[in-house]
């Protein structure tokens, strides 16, 4: 029998501080399921995902060590909606299944699922509640430029491909404002941690009733 786990879907735009927030929850012993980490695992060397990609796009998609050449793959799908759809159709079910497997093996009171495109990819259907880490777009731009060494134009292109701040906030059950100092952030996380513990306990009670 599958146990019902209380799952918090953590999301936010680029450079909003999702990892920082997730790590604060982890300090309370909460297990993290990270979609980005899993997305890398399903295309790791010798994986079924990478074999399928190589069969579809050819050996040119591989680096000399047999691992995925991400830049080459990006070039293949960047301006090609059909190829991007093919890739997403292959990888999304794999990523989704692996996330659910990790949730099932989790032993913490609840689980944080970190999914950058939670709403865009309709993965909010997998979670019990959604938490958005929010910062102003101009802060996103300056933080991404600083962190990734990319141009302002590149960051604006990424922002344009994600849902707007207003759309994201409208769908959020909870919001963390990550524009203040670290102590303010820590206290917001602590408050939500208490809330999620209660919600997880309520869910367990309902399941056993």
TrEMBL record:
GO molecular function: ATP binding; dephospho-CoA kinase activity
Main localization, broad class: cytoplasm
Pathway: Cofactor biosynthesis; coenzyme A biosynthesis; CoA from (R)-pantothenate: step 5/5
Reactions catalysed, as given in the entry: 3'-dephospho-CoA + ATP = ADP + CoA + H(+)
Acyltransferase found in the keyword field: no
EC number: 2.7.1.24
Annotated GO biological process: coenzyme A biosynthetic process
Protein name, entry field: Dephospho-CoA kinase
Organism: Shewanella psychromarinicola
Gene behind the chain: coaE
């Amino acid at each position: 029998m599958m146990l019902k786990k209380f799952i918090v879907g953590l999301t936010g735009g680029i450079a909003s501080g999702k990892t920082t927030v997730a790590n604060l929850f982890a300090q309370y012993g909460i297990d993290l399921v990270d979609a980005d980490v899993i997305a890398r695992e399903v295309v790791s060397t010798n994986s079924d995902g990478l074999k399928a990609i190589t069969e579809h796009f050819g050996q040119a998609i591989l680096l000399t060590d047999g691992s995925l050449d991400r830049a080459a793959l990006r070039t293949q799908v960047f301006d090609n909606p059909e190829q991007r759809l093919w890739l997403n159709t292959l990888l999304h079910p794999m990523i989704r299944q692996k996330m659910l497997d990790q949730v099932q093996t989790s032993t913490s009171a609840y689980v944080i699922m970190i999914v950058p495109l939670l709403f865009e990819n309709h993965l909010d259907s997998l979670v019990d509640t959604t938490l958005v880490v929010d910062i102003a777009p101009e802060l996103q731009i300056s933080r991404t430029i600083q962190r990734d060494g990319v141009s302002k134009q590149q960051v604006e292109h990424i922002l344009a491909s994600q849902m707007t701040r207003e759309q994201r906030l409208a769908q959020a059950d909870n919001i963390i404002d990550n524009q203040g100092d670290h102590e303010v952030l820590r206290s917001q996380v602590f408050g939500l941690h208490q809330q999620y513990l209660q919600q997880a306990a309520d869910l367990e009670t309902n399941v056993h009733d």
